Amino acid sequence: MRLQLNRAHYPVVVLGFGRRAGLWLQGCGIGCDGCVARDTWASDPATEVDIGAVIDWCRTLPAALDGITISGGEPFDQPEALHELLVALHDWRSGRDRAVDLLCYSGRTLGALRSGFAAQLGLLDAVIPGRYLAHRAPGLRWRGSANQQLVPLTPLGHERYDDDIDRPAGPTRMQLGTDGERVYHIGVPAPGDLAALEAAMARRGLGYREASWRG
pTM of the entire structure? Predict the structure, then answer.
């Protein structure tokens, strides 16, 4: 099976426990106002990749990996592909010596996920559900707005995330990544963070050719 994938990145240190890899799926039918990842909204068949190729990339990740974070876009807009990806990730992680947790973001409510996507939830260790609401930003650790929850789903999820359910965000909310052609932000910036970054770049003679987070 194939899925639409915007990008994959390692390491990610601002979207979950420890040192992680990130998978951003392409396509979102929710479209939260103020979203900083608008480049992931449009469904785009040109971004399709084989799930096997994603797992091959995961096999290149170091032994010290703590987890995989799946975001977007809206991962649950590709329910069959997401399910197959999670099944494949379970098979892959079973052969590793270190525990690897699976964390997924969604703009859907927890109730909607439980009623419509129980099979996918059953393969995750934790989920962060809920739309991004700009008027309720910033949120707690790893969350963009205060309405968003952090919900552990398995013993590993509880072990790693129970202490963070009500923990405020730390001072480091963002990191930068690149695929050689574009620079992208990783994380959940607080209001004003991206404008401050742009101003700091301008002072050094740098600037964005275009910025999807502006809309």
Answer: 0.94
